[in-house]
Design a protein that fits this description.
This protein is α+β, with helices and mostly antiparallel strands. It is built from 1 helix and 3 strands. It has one domain. It is globular and about 40 Å long.
């Protein structure tokens, strides 16, 4: 997830491959932003569940 203060954009990094979602969500549409963030968090949770050990960050 990234924002420039006006719009939010989403993407996914798997290994060394980054896939950017072409849509952008304006802050004016908070309900849509909330739904999109919730969907991405569910996807992150499902991806993390595939690992037997927790993913650590540096």
């Amino acid at each position: 997830m990234a924002t420039n203060g006006n719009v939010w954009q989403f993407g996914r990094l798997v290994g060394r491959i980054f896939t950017q979602d072409p849509s952008a969500i304006a802050l004016a549409t908070l309900e849509e932003l909330n739904q999109q963030m919730h969907a991405y968090m569910r996807a992150c949770q499902a991806l993390a569940a595939q690992y037997k050990q927790p993913v650590t960050t540096p």
